[in-house]
Design a protein that fits this description.
The protein is of the alpha+beta class and 1017 residues long. It contains 32 helices and 29 strands.
Length: 1017
């Protein structure tokens, strides 16, 4: 085993990599004085390693391999022409993914199986991973939306009339889609049209190349911050460059959305979903004619696997047999081969299906994969029967899994690698141990001599199939434990050997003419790349003791913001950096095995055998060079860190959901509890004697709940939410933060409007206060959000929320869903419908609805900031935030008037002279209502420190539990933002909701500079 001692990880950089401009890449160079040629691969791999959610399956496509592959295209053409074949022209097929860009209009058919979307998504601790859609392909489709045609260069765009954004009348939508690139799109489109009219295929390809280079090297994003040009765009550029430089003229050019998708029907996909592919296969098949009445061989080739070439040829085979009878179409064979397949299309036309060019210079793992049965065309699998079998034999299935895991847990990592002798069931169990998967959500079992997985929660069923029989969705399964490589890894033959064999195959057909059909399909994240990645993860886990793929760049983070969050954790960064190193030297060693032709044979190599060879290669070739390799990895990360932080420094998801440390919620809750305990009431304070630890031994479900739990002092509490502070999904974080804000901020506001009673803060002002809400630890590592257990109390005789004197919990009409409870004969609010915790009292906003035309200060219902800082918010993306300190300065300096002084006067005026509308509403109320007249409160000087501490806690709540959708951001580390939060609390929340006014600031900047944000003031 490789030990950690081999590594020398350098000082920690909180950093992350996205796409890097050429000027930056040139700065990343290996020291060349003493480095063998084998490290050329390493240098290329590290320099072009794309670290992003969209690009995590594109690392096969770096310049070292791309150049070798591109040269092989020319070698292929030259050897065939030198062998006497003639070629009149070439064809290009350039499909793209329609689902890469969201529809601008709701499509009701999208949920009825009439659209295609087979991108893999996973649920992780931080939410649902974004689908890695092929955006640059769709942008290319948009560029080619209206193609002219000439007698010598025939073009056709399949299905372009069905995409709304391509319609000339959708000009506004096109502007929105293109953003600041709109003029660039128009210029490139004009050049495309000119090249086609001039029948200049070189200029046509060069314009496409220029367009793709712009997307890639200028790091173009869409409005959702998804990278448009991921690393796999490089293979398209290289392929196009070859076509441009080739003397063979272009005659036919076909493009369209999903034109090469497999034509068959499944439970999840109807016939209509593949109508573009149906139209294309019918159109294209007519073009397969003999040239000059001579036998003609059409050579189908692509740069990489997974772009639809073999799939489309499968469609052609089905078309030859069944024409338009789609129901009879057979599943496409996805089996890979080291040789070309040649079959006869018609009497004088033959078709050659070549392996992807890149496959001649990389490895091909082979085995099986688990596929959702709803993606299979064969309906022999009845869901209800399989589920019934599982439920009936649940205990036996569970015991079998436990016993098998126990049987294998003593095996070494090397012995956990799949073998040919392993059954699919055993191999899956080994994978669980190899990848250290503790929480098994997909339960394996045997049914009718086949291996299935079932998720008891979602009832999703997966069947284990050979990779060659798996549909497209299965090949993109990014769960590494669900791919079983019991067939080992195939290595390519030496390329010249392949060319010699293929030339003889071509001659045997009797063809004299050859037409090259080049697939430049814009399908990113090649399915074969996902297969390679899953194999690589398993191999690395076996080679390196310290490897943890769940903290690697293939962990399937929910978003790039989540990835940045992990890099900001030192321990996670080091694990990710280590895995980057492990991957680099493992990939380089695999390439060395190919380059040295050690495995120049047709049969695959078992993983255990390959393990030993790779271990020796790594120890001899790359561990001695580990220092130089790690230095370059650190440079890669450090150089791109600034760019990523600049992109996400104000991102809502990153600031509001990922940055807050959940471990700080317990101390914050304790401070709030201690603060509220000091309020002297006319009755016993409900915040007292709650207890410290939840005595809950039963397994509690994570998330929202409704359960009575017992504290260590015997007190009963209502558990409203349960979470693990060490790991919490984004959706759970959002719900948790909204819940805490909803209760804590009103409670703290109520504590400020107090009087002095014997030197203690005291209040009788609030007839119906909110019930206490706290965070407490449990005994099993989980934390509980608890509410004081109240006795049931009927609402009869209690007025709605507007009868709560001056505590404006809602920024709308009082809710009829308010629920009350009793404790020690006193009434408390225990539940109310709160639809928005991001405005008004919860976001330093007023709830007045006024408009002063002379001063031009609109005070809107939702927030004081909505209009005043709107220009600043509009200047940035809707997913971005504005710093609280910046918002405060904007309010303070607006129009050379004191905004806060103006608002203070308006609040006082409104309190002393209630509006006529309010009076009219009161007349309609029952005479039984006895609401006291509102008065402006003053604070005893002895309570200044008390008030300051309450302001501090309110600002800490805003800092540690921000609202997910708020446009305002209080950055965790920023004391300027914290000071702004304190001042806004004093100048807005205290006057508006507590009716407490201070002429002088309670806080000074000097005081804030000495303040530890994690400690009590």
């Amino acid at each position: 085993m490789m030990k950690k001692s081999y590594l020398s990880i350098f000082s920690f950089f909180i950093c992350l990599s996205f796409l890097i401009p050429i000027s930056t890449i040139q700065a990343l160079t290996m020291p060349t004085s003493s480095i063998p040629i084998s490290l050329d691969f390493v240098k290329s791999f590290i320099n072009f390693y794309e670290i992003s959610n969209e690009g995590r399956f594109t690392h096969e496509y770096h310049p070292f391999l791309l150049k070798k592959t591109a040269h092989s295209f020319s070698d292929l053409e030259n050897i065939l022409l030198e062998s006497g074949f003639k070629t009149a022209h070439r064809m290009i097929i350039m499909g793209y993914e329609k689902a890469a860009a969201p529809d601008y209009f709701f499509n009701p058919f999208a949920v009825k199986g009439e659209s295609i979307n087979d991108e893999t998504i996973n649920k992780t601790l931080f939410g649902i991973t974004q689908e890695c859609h092929d955006l640059f392909g769709f942008m290319t489709g948009f560029l080619l939306k209206n193609l002219p045609t000439t007698p010598q260069m025939l073009t056709e765009h399949i299905g372009n009339k069905k995409i709304i954004i391509f319609d000339p009348r959708a000009y506004r939508f096109q502007q929105d889609f293109c953003g600041n690139l709109h003029n660039f799109f128009k210029q490139q489109e004009q050049q495309i049209h000119k090249a086609l009219f001039d029948e200049n295929h070189e200029q046509f390809m060069q314009t496409c190349i220029d367009f793709w280079n712009t997307l890639y090297y200028q790091n173009i994003n869409n409005k959702d911050q998804h990278v448009a040009g991921t690393q796999d765009i490089l293979f398209t550029i290289e392929h196009a460059q070859h076509i441009k430089d080739s003397p063979i003229p272009l005659k036919y050019f076909f493009t369209g959305s999903d034109v090469t998708y497999p034509i068959n029907q499944t439970t999840l996909r109807s016939k209509k979903a593949t109508e573009n592919a149906q139209e294309f296969v019918a159109t294209f098949s007519k073009k397969l004619q003999p040239i000059n009445d001579e036998k003609t061989l059409y050579v189908f080739r692509s740069f990489v696997d997974g772009v639809g070439k073999s799939t489309m040829l499968g469609n052609i085979k089905n078309w030859m047999k069944y024409q338009n009878n789609i129901k009879k179409y057979q599943a496409i064979d996805n089996a890979s081969s080291q040789f070309a397949e040649i079959f006869q299309f018609s009497e004088q036309v033959f078709i050659a299906d070549l392996p992807a060019q890149l496959s001649h210079f990389t490895y091909k793992p082979d085995g099986s994969v688990f596929v959702n049965i709803k993606n299979l065309p064969d309906r022999a699998y009845e869901d209800h029967l399989i589920i019934e079998h599982f439920e009936k034999n649940k205990k036996q299935i569970s015991d079998s899994l436990k016993n098998k895991i126990k049987e294998f847990e003593s095996l070494s990592p090397k012995d956990l690698l799949s073998k040919q002798s392993d059954s699919q069931y055993n191999a899956y169990c080994k994978n669980l141990l190899l990848l250290n998967i503790k929480e098994i959500k997909q339960i394996p079992f045997l049914y009718k001599n086949q291996t299935f997985l079932l998720n008891p929660d979602t009832k999703e069923i997966r069947l284990c199939l050979p990779l060659g029989q798996a549909p497209s969705e299965g090949l993109k399964n990014s769960n590494p434990e669900q791919m079983i490589f019991n067939q080992g890894v195939r290595f390519p033959f030496e390329y010249q050997h392949f060319l010699d064999i293929f030339t003889e195959q071509c001659k045997e057909t009797g063809a004299t003419q050859i037409v090259f059909v080049d697939f430049l399909s814009m399908y990113a994240r090649s399915s074969r790349e996902v297969i390679r990645i899953n194999y690589l993860i398993q191999q690395i886990q076996a080679l390196f003791d310290q490897a943890d793929y769940q903290k690697s760049l293939y962990a399937g983070f929910a978003s790039n913001a989540t990835l940045l969050h992990h890099f900001n954790q030192k321990i996670n960064y080091l694990k990710i950096s280590d895995c980057f190193f492990y991957e680099t030297i493992t990939r380089a060693s695999l390439f060395n095995l190919i380059d040295s032709k050690i495995y120049n044979r047709p049969d695959p190599v078992e993983l255990s055998e390959l393990h030993n060879v790779l271990k020796q290669e790594i120890e001899n070739q790359y561990l001695p060079q580990s220092k130089a390799i790690i230095q370059n990895i650190d440079k890669k990360l450090a150089l791109t860190h600034t760019m990523l932080l600049e992109q996400y420094k104000d991102n809502k998801e990153f600031i509001h959901l990922l940055s807050p440390d959940l471990n700080q919620l317990l101390p914050l809750s304790s401070k709030i509890e201690k603060h509220m305990k000091q309020v002297s009431l006319s009755h016993q304070n409900p915040w007292k004697n709650i207890g410290e630890v939840v005595q809950e031994r039963d397994i509690c479900q994570i998330g929202e709940c409704e359960k009575i739990v017992l504290m260590n002092n015997g007190t009963k509490m209502r558990a409203l939410f349960v979470f693990d502070p060490q790991k919490c999904e984004l959706s759970l974080r959002a719900s948790l933060f909204v819940l805490l804000r909803k209760w804590w901020i009103p409670a703290l506001i109520s504590s400020i409007a107090v009087t002095d009673k014997n030197g203690r803060p005291s209040t009788k002002q609030f007839k119906y206060p909110v019930a206490p809400l706290l965070v407490k630890p449990g005994l099993n590592g989980l934390w509980y959000v608890l509410q004081k257990k109240l006795h049931t109390f009927e609402n009869d005789g209690i007025e709605a929320l507007e009868d709560l004197p001056n505590l404006k919990l809602l920024n709308k009409e009082p809710s009829t869903h308010t629920k009350y409870g009793c404790w020690n004969d006193n009434i408390y609010i225990k539940e109310w419908k709160c639809t928005d915790c991001s405005s008004g009292i919860y976001n330093w906003g007023y709830s007045l609805s006024l408009f002063n035309t002379s001063q031009n200060y609109p005070l809107l219902l939702d927030s004081a900031f909505s209009e005043l800082i709107k220009p600043s918010i509009d200047a940035i993306d809707t997913s971005q935030t504005i710093r609280l300190s910046q918002a405060y300065k904007t309010l303070e300096q607006r129009d050379k008037y004191s905004f806060f002084s103006f608002c203070e006067k308006e609040i006082k005026k409104n309190l002393v002279n209630p509006s006529k509308e309010s009076k009219n509403q009161k007349k309609k109320k029952s005479q039984a209502s006895s609401r006291p007249e509102v008065k402006i409160s003053s604070v005893n000087p002895s309570l200044i420190q008390w008030t300051k501490h309450a302001c501090y806690l309110i600002t800490q709540v805003a800092r540690l539990v921000p609202h997910p959708q708020s446009s305002l951001a209080l950055h965790l580390e920023s004391k300027e933002d914290f000071f702004a939060g304190l001042m806004l609390t004093q100048k807005i929340l205290l006057p508006e909701y507590g009716h407490v006014f201070f002429e002088e600031p309670l806080w000074s900047i000097a005081e804030i500079s000495r303040l530890d944000l994690e400690e009590k003031s």
